[in-house]
Amino acid sequence: MEISLEQPSPGQVAAIAAVSGVRATEERGSAPLRVTVGDADRAIPELLAALAASGATVRAVAPYRPTFDEVFIRLIEQHGEARPPVGRLQTSGSA
Description:
The chain is of the alpha+beta class. It has a single domain (about 1-80), classed as Alpha-Beta Plaits (2-Layer Sandwich). Helices cover about 35% and strands about 20% of the residues. The protein is built from three helices and four strands. It has a four-stranded antiparallel β-sheet, with helices on one face. It starts with a strand and ends in a 16-residue tail after the last helix.
């Protein structure tokens, strides 16, 4: 999901990261924070409560679905070291 805050601070980002079910947070400068959660319906009330307790002013909370390209790039970044072996392609007519 994307969360827009009035003036995000490191303490507010830490409050988000500490909420149960939050898998990752991504700060993107002045753009909304991207927060990856397992269950958005369960996480949103907890996130809002944690942000209120941290003194944050929440402008908006919106779902975010990554594009195929973003998912592909993330998978390559995470698993880039695990590459399949490279070998010669053999066909039935090869000598």
